Every structure is written in C-alpha cells, then in structure tokens.
C-alpha cells in the first residue's frame, strides 16, 4: 500500500498562558512507496513518534492529510485503517498466553475459530515463535516478547506496519538479531512498513529509505547510503556516521579551501592573542565564504607531506582498522577520530600526524545556514518543498490574543 503524507503538521499548545506551544511535526510531505520499509530517524523529540501516531490514527493532525492508496484516512479511526502497530514496551497482556495475545486482535472479528487458529499459527511461524504459543510473556526473553508483539500486529494481515522504536529495550546482541528478523518479515510479506528509531545504525541497516528529522522538520529523504555519502546539511552529516564526522571551521578564498582562520583571534578586549593560521586542503568551485568543513573518519590518508597536521593523542588498534585519536585548534569538538587500515604504520612517539584527504569524504557547509555547498540531490532523493510553519501560522486570531 502506498502511503502519502501531505503537509502533515502537529501542534501542541502550551496550557500555561503566555507561553509558546510546540510544533512536533512541521509541514511534513512524503510519499512512501508500496511494499517498502521506511526509517524515521532523528534524535529524541524530533517528531518521529508523533508522525507514527498520526499515521496510526492515535493522534489527529493539526493540519495536513494522510492517504492510504489514494484514500483520505486523516480522520479515520485506528481500527478502520488496516494498520499493525508495535510499541517499544511490547504491551503484551501478562495473564494471557502467547497464543491468546496474538489471537486478541481477531476476537471481535467474525472469523470462524479454525480460521483464527490458522492465522495465529501462521503469524507465530512468521516470527519463529510457534513453539512458544502456550507460554506466558513472563517466561519469554525480551527478544521473544518483541516477536510476540510483531506477530500480534501481523495477524490481521495489515496494509501498513508501524514500529515505534521496537528494539530500544533489547541488549546489543538481541537488537542485531531482531532487526534482521524485522527485515526478513517485511521482505517476506511485502507489507509497507514505517520504522521509528533514534539509532542511525538500525535505520541504515534495514531501511529502503530514510527520513531524517530534527525539531519536527524533515531534513533529508533518500536511500541510507546515499544520505551518508551525500548529506544535504550539517545536521544530517553529523547525525549519520559511526564514528561521527569530524567538523572544522574554515573558509573558501579564491577557489581554495582552508581549515583555520584568516583573521587573528582576539581576546574580550579586542586585542590579538593568536595570529591567523590556516592550512589549504583542497580546491573548489565556490564563492569566498566562511564554512564548516566535515571530514568522515575514513577520509584521512596518513602522509609525511600531508596538507593537514593534527596533534596526536593516542592510537587504538581495532583488528582490521586503526583509530587515530588527535586534536586540532579549529576542530569543533576536542577529539578528532581518523580510521585507517591496520597495515599503515603510525609513529606513536611523534607529537603530530599529517594527513592528506579523500575529496569525496570532505563536505563543505555554509557557516551561517549550515547548508551543503554545491549539494546535488541524487536521482532517488525526495525533494523537500514545504517550508516550516511558525506557531502564528497555526493559531487563529482568538488563539493569538489568548496566548
């Protein structure tokens, strides 16, 4: 089933007079292709779960429309939408067996008992818990309980499956195993699936497309690896990647990119305390401007004649890779992490390390807007047309006066 969100917005007014409310989801438009798994990704409070609850019908939008295969379901009750919903805390009935938990959504439907039992067994087999049907939830591991929750959501053969951070309560090993199971189930059933998570590794590993959100606003929509390789703005570049991208301040002048500053540093009285210092790292076709420079950890090449010099802190050996921990006066964070092949020898007794850079791993962002310089969308990127709304856009004149 194809799902379309059209200018979807959710505003929560503040109950305290005179204080602003919150626009949890801000003018969100997106087309979810039939049979795809979509990851809604972003930090806590970015609006991803609110979007999911509006899709499910548990929350009503302040503005905008939701379409399932062209049918307007914006005001339709949750039970009439043909959706399956899985929460992060499983929400199983502790006094019921696994069988009865899975059966529960079918009990109010006038389906013959034999058919209901067949659906329960088929759903249990789909998530590989058919041998656990007579156990209670307390007798199951966290991963098994989550599978029961998924089986219960799937037993009605939903048109759309909604997963709200379903792996957040599992340990690292179970998270890996369960996310692989979710991907397998989605591929087997071809059900359109929306998966909410703040874990970018989860989203990148199983999603066909990722929607990156911040403060209710969609930042970028594309295939996972393409977003990683082609971030649209500084937030997206920083949010995706483990270890995270290294960010420096710098500038462009006469087609050259420099890390550092062309102005001397001053104290609070305006007196120069440090002379201007910069290192030329590459050429670019762009106008002169101040920039943020993002370099992925795998974008560093150790070289005795390198263009960038960092102060070495220590080296961590991680099997096939070496992680070089260093610092630089114009890095945004105190620690720089560079990942290089373990075959490369690093002089750990040296105070500094020099690097050349892989150009395709270096991203430039305007210092004021934080938008990517010379960004070119991929063929699969969904263009974000809608502009974010303000609180005044969503309030009536009477509401504004009351505020």
Short overview:
This protein is an alpha+beta fold and 403 residues long. 22% of the residues lie in helices and 33% in strands. It has two domains: 3-82 and 158-230 and 385-391, 3-Layer(aba) Sandwich (Rossmann fold); 238-366, no CATH class.
- Give the mean pLDDT: 91
Named at the architecture level, the CATH assignment of the largest domain is 3-Layer(aba) Sandwich
How many β-strand stretches? 22
Output the CATH homologous superfamily of the largest domain. P-loop containing nucleotide triphosphate hydrolases
Helix percentage range: 10-25%
User: What is the general shape?
Assistant: globular
How many domains?
2
How would you characterize the largest beta sheet? 6 strands, mixed
Distance between the termini: 41 Å
What structural class is derived from the secondary structure elements? alpha+beta
Radius of gyration, taken over Cα atoms and rounded to an integer in Å: 25 Å
Task: For this entry, give a set of tags.
alpha+beta; 5-stranded antiparallel sheet; about 400 residues; Rossmann fold; globular; 22 strands
Structural features, described:
The chain is of the alpha+beta class and 403 residues long. It has helices at residues 48-56, 98-103, 113-126, 142-154, 172-189, 200-206, 224-229, 234-239, 391-394, 397-402; strands at residues 3-12, 22-32, 37-41, 63-68, 71-72, 83-86, 160-164, 192-197, 209-214, 217-222, 246-253, 256-261, 265-266, 272-274, 277-283, 289-295, 300-302, 308-318, 321-327, 336-341, 352-357, 362-366. It has two domains: 3-82 and 158-230 and 385-391, P-loop containing nucleotide triphosphate hydrolases (Rossmann fold, 3-Layer(aba) Sandwich), CATH 3.40.50.300; 238-366, no CATH class. The radius of gyration is 25 Å and the shape is globular.
């Amino acid at each position: 089933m194809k799902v379309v969100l059209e200018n979807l917005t959710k505003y929560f007014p503040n109950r305290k007079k005179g204080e602003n409310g919150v626009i949890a989801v801000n003018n969100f438009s997106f087309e979810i292709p039939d049979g795809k798994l979509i990851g809604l990704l972003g930090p806590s409070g970015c609006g991803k779960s609110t979007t999911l609850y509006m899709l499910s019908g548990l929350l009503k939008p302040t503005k905008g429309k939701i379409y399932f295969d062209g049918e307007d379901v914006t005001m339709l009750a949750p039970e009439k939408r043909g959706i399956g919903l899985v929460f992060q805390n499983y929400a199983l009935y502790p006094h019921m067996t696994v069988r009865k938990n899975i059966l529960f959504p079918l009990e109010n439907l006038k389906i013959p008992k034999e058919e209901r039992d067949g659906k329960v067994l088929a759903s249990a087999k789909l998530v590989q818990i058919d041998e656990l049907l007579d156990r209670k939830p307390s007798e199951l591991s966290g991963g098994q309980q989550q599978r029961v929750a998924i089986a219960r959501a799937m037993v009605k053969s939903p048109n759309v499956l909604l997963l709200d951070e379903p792996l957040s309560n599992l340990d690292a090993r179970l998270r890996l195993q369960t996310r692989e199971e979710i991907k397998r189930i989605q591929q087997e059933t071809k059900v359109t699936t929306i998966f909410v998570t703040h874990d970018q590794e989860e989203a990148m590993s199983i999603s066909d497309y990722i929607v990156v959100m911040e403060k209710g606003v969609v930042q970028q929509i594309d295939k996972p690896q393409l977003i990683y390789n082609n971030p649209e703005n500084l937030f997206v570049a920083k949010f995706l990647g483990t270890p995270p991208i290294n960010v420096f301040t710098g500038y462009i002048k006469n087609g050259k990119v420099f890390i550092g500053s062309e102005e001397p540093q001053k104290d609070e009285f305006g007196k120069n305390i440090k002379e201007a210092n910069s290192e030329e790292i590459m050429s670019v076709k762009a106008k002169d401007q101040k920039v943020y420079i993002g370099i992925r950890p795998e974008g560093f090449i150790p070289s005795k004649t390198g263009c960038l010099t960092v102060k070495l802190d220590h080296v961590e050996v991680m099997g096939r890779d070496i992680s070089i921990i260093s610092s630089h006066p114009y890095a945004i964070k105190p620690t720089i992490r560079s990942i290089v092949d373990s075959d490369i020898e690093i002089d750990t007794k040296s105070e500094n390390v020099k690097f050349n850079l892989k150009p395709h791993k270096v991203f430039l962002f305007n210092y004021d807007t934080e938008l990517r310089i010379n960004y070119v969308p991929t063929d699969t990127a969904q263009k974000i047309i809608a502009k974010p709304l303000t609180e005044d856009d969503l309030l009536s004149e009477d509401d504004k006066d009351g505020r």
